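Worked problem 6 (solution included).
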Amino acid sequence: MDRIDRKLLNLLQRDASRTNVDIAEEVGLSPSSCLRRVRRLRKAGIIERVVAILNPARTGRVLQALVTVELRLHGEQHMRRFLDLAIVEDAVSQAYAVTGETDVVLMLSLRDMEEFDALCDRLFRDQTNVARFFTMIVIRTAKKETAIPL
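Solution. The predicted structure is:
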């Protein structure tokens, strides 16, 4: 990855809806060269996907929460089983297996506490191997960045 690739990636991370012609002009390439580079970056897996980032509150998902989960039983199969349950939930926007005392961290985007309560029933109670979980409700977002520094 050279300087031009990094510049392309930085531009795309800020606004991937820009036209190829606009991006090519800004990085000093012809549109065809720019398109070839972007395709190469996709093929190499550096660009995983291009998405629209929505405002959760404007979509009715007004409640954001972080949940740390400690599993009762450990090991890859137990971790995988819990993560498989979590990732099919619409309210789970991010799910991470982590190191330390906590086994899993979930980022939730919820309509209301009723949805959260129903999610708790499905993920954290009964036979889901959860020893305990801790919930933190987001009251203010100071920074929410999707770009990776290059």
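Discussion: The mean pLDDT is 95.
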